[in-house]
């Protein structure tokens, strides 16, 4: 999801910070759902819908992970935008000619305008686009991954894990709500604060919840139950960006993730689990935040650090028990056309 769609007051043109104001995210999205019964007009159907995402974006990264874990690559195709965008739209910079090869558009905005001419809100990723008419169906990223787990079961791989098991949904929903408010969105509340007071409040809220999570994860391997669930996916994408961008760029600098023992080990455990770390592109992540948010990084300088090799160090989380995939199995390696270039991930040597 792009972050510039989310303020009650208007910031300066092309900016992300509203002077004197607290950052408030607009969570009103295109809530149309793709379901087995097609009740919103969009039935689940293999090869009909294209997931448009960006590796830089934490909200889109969730969909990449869940799609991988469930084995939906053949059922739902993937279009990737580049890491930077202007105030108007995400763009398909990574494709030959700058045009998505399936949707035949250069700007994601075209798919939004196809659905609602003159679409008045932010052009966000992730988005599911109907390839039949090229119109966005939904950009409701929170519901999107839940529907992958519950509505697309006819197309998931053999051995797909249960990421949203029915008996744990209340617990998952409860912690997801807290993690979204205090952590996923909390880092943005710090970074896009328009006053010292707003920043101070956001900073205190963020680290209070990170301390709670660090304590919780001291005695249990995963957030809910003894397997990976949707809750772990949602926390992971923020943790994966913490030291590389949030700590410096968003001023969430009480300490590094690497200085929070349980959270750091938990994040490494997930990163080293197939389907998680192999979706993370640190080069694109840093390019997005440091190049796009020019009102808080006016020089556009992208830092060289931090050293990423720690992500591959031993985590010892298996000593807490738990089975990452439950009765399921790890996903196979990524499709060749979806592999993160080695230079953009964590060094495997040196």
From TrEMBL:
Pfam families: GST_C_2 (PF13410), GST_N_2 (PF13409). InterPro entries: Glutathione-S-Trfase_C-like, Glutathione-S-Trfase_C_sf, Glutathione_S-Trfase, Glutathione_S-Trfase_N, GST_Omega-like_C, GST_Omega/GSH, Thioredoxin-like_sf. Residues 307-320, 335-350 have a biased composition (Basic and acidic residues). Residues 307-350 are annotated as: Disordered. Residues 165-289 form the GST C-terminal domain. It comes from the Bacteria. This is Glutathione S-transferase C-terminal domain-containing protein. It comes from Gordonia defluvii.
């Amino acid at each position: 999801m792009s972050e510039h769609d989310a303020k009650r007051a208007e910031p300066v043109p092309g900016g992300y910070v509203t002077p004197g104001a607290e950052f408030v995210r607009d969570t009103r999205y295109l809530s149309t759902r793709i379901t087995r019964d097609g009740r919103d007009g969009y039935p689940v159907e293999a090869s009909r819908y294209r997931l448009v995402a960006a590796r830089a974006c934490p909200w889109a990264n969730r969909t990449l992970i869940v799609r991988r874990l469930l084995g939906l690559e053949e059922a739902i195709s993937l279009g990737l935008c580049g890491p930077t965008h202007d105030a108007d739209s995400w763009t398909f910079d990574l494709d030959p000619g700058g045009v998505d090869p399936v949707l035949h558009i250069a700007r994601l905005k075209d798919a939004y305008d196809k659905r609602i001419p003159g679409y008045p809100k932010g052009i966000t990723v992730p988005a599911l686009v109907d390839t039949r008419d090229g119109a966005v169906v939904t950009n409701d990223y929170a519901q999107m991954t839940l529907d992958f787990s519950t509505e697309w079961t006819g197309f998931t791989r053999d051995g797909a894990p249960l990421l949203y098991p029915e008996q744990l949904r209340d617990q998952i929903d409860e912690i997801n709500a807290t993690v979204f408010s205090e952590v996923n969105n909390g880092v943005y509340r710090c970074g896009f604060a328009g006053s010292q007071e707003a920043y101070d409040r956001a900073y205190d809220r963020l680290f209070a919840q990170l301390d709670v999570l660090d304590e919780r994860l001291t005695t249990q391997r995963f957030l809910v139950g003894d397997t990976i669930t949707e809750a772990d996916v949602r926390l992971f994408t923020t943790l994966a960006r913490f030291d590389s961008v949030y700590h410096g760029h968003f001023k969430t600098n009480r300490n590094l993730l690497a200085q929070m023992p349980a959270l750091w080990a938990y994040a490494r455990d997930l990163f080293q689990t197939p389907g998680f770390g192999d979706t993370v592109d640190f080069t694109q992540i840093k390019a997005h935040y440091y190049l796009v948010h020019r009102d808080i990084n006016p020089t556009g300088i992208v830092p060289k650090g931090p050293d990423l090799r720690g992500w591959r160090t031993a985590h010892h989380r298996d000593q807490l028990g738990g089975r990452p995939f439950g009765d399921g199995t790890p996903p196979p390696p990524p499709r060749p056309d979806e592999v993160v270039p080695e230079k953009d991930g964590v060094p495997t040597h040196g």
